[in-house]
Amino acid sequence: MTLARDMQICRAFVIAALLETVRRREVYVLLALSVLMVAAAYSFTFFGVHGLELFVKDMGFSSVGLFASVLGVAVAARQLPEEIQRRTIYPLLARPITRWQLLVGKFAAAWITCVVTFVTLSLVVLLLLLALRMPPGWIFLQYLLVRSLGFLWLCGFVICLSTYLSPAGALTVGMLLTLGAGVFTRTLMFVDGTSPVMKVLLTPVYAFLPQYSLFDLTKKMVYGWEPIHPLAIAGLALYGAAIAFFWLRIAWLRFRRQAI
Amino acid sequence: MRHTAQLLGLAALLLAGGVGVQAALPEHRRQPDTWGSQQVFEDAPATSLIGGFRTTTASWLFARAQEYLHGGVMLRAATTQEQETGAPLATHGDELESNHGAETGVIPPPGRDPRWVWGMLERETQPYMDVRSHRHHDLREALPLYRMMTWSDPYFVEAYSQGAYMVFSGAESQNLQRALDFLKEGLHYNPRSWQLHKDYAHYHLYNVRDWRIAREYYLKAIKLTEGLPEDKVSESELEAAWIGLVQALRKLDNRDEALQWAALGMQRDPAAPTFRRIFEHYGVPVPKLRNLKARQSH
User: Fold this and answer.
1) What pTM value is reported for the model?
2) Which of A17-31, A228-242, B214-228 shows the highest mean pLDDT?
3) Residue percentage of chain B with pLDDT more than 70
4) Is the torsion defined by CA of B24, B49, B34, B158 positive or negative?
């Protein structure tokens, strides 16, 4: 009964978030930009440069990843603050909805919006590449799935930030930690990797660092690598769900007592 | 909708303005490959700004080309500690002999990764390979990037040098004439680049077998190194130019000049066998280093 109720709440929030995204027209701009990036990369063939398959694929899917992440951060960062600013949170909480259900509903809304946007952008680029006879291979399906799992981390983390920081702060910090995720995790790799003590100490620390770049198969797809092992996908799914839950609980610690 | 149109209009205007200013700036046509180029940028801030954009684009494309060659696997300079503790350093297992130096993979191998499960996941989701004795992907995939980076920055000497090598050494795309044309274009924009002169001479000595042109360009290359600071001249590459010159002179049967350059070469590197062999070839006793120095001082 509770699960059914949760699902009902989530569905309502998801529909509202999707409508809001369509209304804001952000997706159209990103769609146009993605097409422009592919077209710009391909345009070099008109100047006599041939053999650009890798470059066009690289530009197309890199821009999809970038744009979807930027939109994801923006969508997740505004879920709660906008409800508070517009005062629409009062009628929401007047219904039989707990704050935890509201938080999870908002998370689900942000996640589904990210996935729908990302899949739409990817499919448009895929169609363009197919038209240009540059198919990306079957790893494309894994690319869609793994990135969608990555949005679990992104949405959970940014929603958590939005409960502790101002909307602008959550957006900026979220953007920095999402797009620069690789930089933060790689810094620690300069420590002595042969030491077993460091392995024991660092492994749990890494779980809480921004590991968003782990969910990105763009390079493997662009360079034509084989699909990855299903166990790796299972591991990423497990990690994505666990870390999203963790950040949502941290957010809830703040949100449950927040004066609105 | 109106705002979008205004933004697009503004972007187009900026782009057109940038191209216009760039075309109008005479400073931009100067030669940044010479070691006085910093002065150009300091004298003309606008050149620095626009030239910087072009140089940055070319450098980005260069980095991309390196990535393409390795199938997306990224390399980085190994730290001193890594070199001392035996981290796997990048070496080639194919015919491409460009030097990697002390580089290692950005993603460490299992035994040297402090991240355990996170490292395992990254090695699965990102392009990863053992960088020792690695092979390169089809060189044709990186070729268009060299074309674009030299369009973006015609003073990018390394791009001409490596691009020509790619054109020529790729198993599928061997095309000597294209490589020479590419280098010639590089020489047109970088007439004071000793590396490009040396490369051009190398192709004529070892592939075209036109000893006369090889001699001419080797001489120019060696002449151009005079007065350059030490860090601008790779000792091993200069050595190769010197040996190439002596070999070209021998092929031309220019005995006196060959002996003269061989003697000078022995002063630079007494152990190099090529110089000694020239003396043996012409039946002239190999001079002692002390005698050479005395002759030089006269």
Assistant:
1) 0.76
2) A228-242
3) 80
4) negative
Cβ-based contacts of A193 with chain B (< 8 Å): 108, 111-115
Is the distance from CB of B182 to CB of B160 less than 8 angstroms? yes
Residues B241 and B96 in one domain: no
Same domain as B200, residue B261: yes
Shared domain for B187 and B262, answered yes or no, is yes
In the predicted structure, residue B33 carries a pLDDT above the cut 60: no
**Is B30 contained in some domain?**
no
B155 assigned to some structural domain: yes
User: ∠ CA B215-B216-B220 to the nearest 5 degrees?
Assistant: 115
What are the extents of the domains in chain A? 2-255
Domains contained in chain B, number:
2
Amino acid A6 reads D
The 10s digit of each residue's pLDDT in A87-136 is: 888 888 888 888 999 999 999 999 999 999 999 999 999 999 998 888 88
CATH number (domain holding residue B205)? 1.25.40.10
- For A232, which residue in chain B has the nearest alpha carbon? B121
Backbone angles phi, psi at B92, to 5 degrees: -95, 150
Nearest CA in chain A to B73: A219
Separation between Cα atoms, residue A146 and residue A167, nearest integer Å: 28
Measured N-to-C along each axis, helices B235-251 and B211-225 cross at an angle, to the nearest 10 degrees, of 150
Hey, which residues 173-212 in chain A have their CB within 8 Å of chain B? Answer: 185-186, 188-195, 198-199, 202-203, 206-207, 211
Domain of residue B110: give its range: 75-125
End-to-end CA gap in chain A:
29
Pairing of strands B103-105, B75-77: antiparallel
Residue A66, pLDDT score:
93
Residues of B in contact with A188 (CB under 8 A): 114-115
Residue B105, helix vs strand vs coil: strand
The answer to whether position B56 is within a domain reads no
Q: What single-letter amino acid sits at B265?
A: G
Max Cα–Cα distance, chain A, nearest Å: 65
DSSP state of B88: P
Question: Looking at chain B, which residue has its C-alpha nearest residue A192?
Answer: B114
Residue B80 located in a structural domain: yes
B79 and B147 fall within a common domain: no
**Identity at B85, one-letter amino acid code:** T
Q: Which ipTM was obtained for this model?
A: 0.86
* Rounded distance between C-alpha atoms, residue B205 and residue B214, angstroms: 5
DSSP secondary structure string, A208-257?
A: TS--GGGG--HHHHHTTPPPPPHHHHHHHHHHHHHHHHHHHHHHHHHHTT
Partner residue opposite A217 with nearest CB, options B106, B125, B141: B125
